[in-house]
Amino acid sequence: MVVKEIIHKHLSYTSIPEFFDGEYWPSQIWYCLRKQYYSRVSPIPMSLESKKFTTLGTIIHEFIAETLKKEESVRVESEVPIRIPHPNRHDVVISGRADDIIIVTVGKSRYVVEVKTIDDLESKRSYLPRKEHIAQLNVYLRAYPNSKGIILYVDRGSFEMEEFEISFNPDLFNETIKRVEMLHDYLIKRELPPPEAKENQDMKWQCDICEYRAKCERQISSNSNKKF
Ligand code: SF4
């Protein structure tokens, strides 16, 4: 148990991310709006289970980037900064260090690669690629015009992989911008957004790994009690 305890102790050291007003990360915009609101207004540290989940994702991402770097004809960049000002609102920007993508250049072709780790890829093939993953990559494609996007799903258990090629979609980018605006307005007004993931079949899985689930459910039940 000695080694396990040491690893758990280190995994438990979590710092709460520092958010700046008006700056929104591409990797989070398609999370449940209520969850994003909580994580900015009353943040709590990530649970050990979530930390394990993200740590495995990071390890696999780094392995993929390092493996691609071994290919002589390929140029690889990771942890690239992204900054996309809102087209109409000067107080809003999509920004962050894109440490979840890898830029791969082969000759004159450039690919923006988003690596997503997943449990039981085989049973989820029919749901892939997920809209929120396409939308996230779509933001990066806006920052890297004339690039192709690739979402690479990697099974955490079997290391099976599946890749999807994505092109920039301006309508989806506008949807993303609208989400950023909505979240920004909720935050400015300090108004709690609806429990988006609970109300949307395609997003419900987010509730299973949400640190704010208990708080969110207390809020839902207090709202329903007020109706009687
Ligand atoms: S429990 Fe679900 S609906 Fe509630 S904040 Fe978390 S992800 Fe959103």
Model description:
The protein is α/β, with parallel strands linked by helices and 228 residues long. The protein has a single domain (2-226), classed as Lambda Exonuclease, Chain A (Alpha-Beta Complex). Helices cover 43% and strands 23% of the residues. Strands 1, 2, 3, 4, 5 and 6 form a six-stranded mixed sheet that branches. The longest helix is centred in the first third of the chain and has 22 residues, at 48-69. The protein starts with a helix and ends with a helix. The site of iron/sulfur cluster has 13 residues, from α2, α7 and α8. Iron/sulfur cluster (SF4) binds at residues 32, 34-35, 195-198, 206-207, 210, 212-213, 216. Its cofactor is Mn(2+). This is CRISPR-associated protein Cas4. It holds the Pfam family PDDEXK_1.
**Structural class of the secondary elements?**
alpha/beta
Please outline the major beta sheet: 6 strands, mixed
Strand content: 15-25%
Q: What's the pLDDT, averaged over the residues?
A: 89
The SSE order reads HEHHEEEHHEEHHH
Reported by name, the CATH topology is Lambda Exonuclease, Chain A
Architecture, according to CATH? Alpha-Beta Complex
End-to-end distance, in Å? 51 Å
Pfam families: PDDEXK_1 (PF12705)
Cofactor: Mn(2+)
Organism: Saccharolobus caldissimus
Protein name: CRISPR-associated protein Cas4
List the helices and strands and how they pair.
Blueprint: H1 2-12, E1 23-24, H2 33-41, H3 48-69, E2 74-85, E3 93-106, E4 109-118, H4 121-124, H5 131-143, E5 148-155, E6 161-166, H6 170-189, H7 205-208, H8 213-226
Parallel strand pairs: 1-3, 4-5
Antiparallel strand pairs: 2-3, 3-4, 5-6
Helix pairs in contact: 2-6, 5-6
The structure holds iron/sulfur cluster.
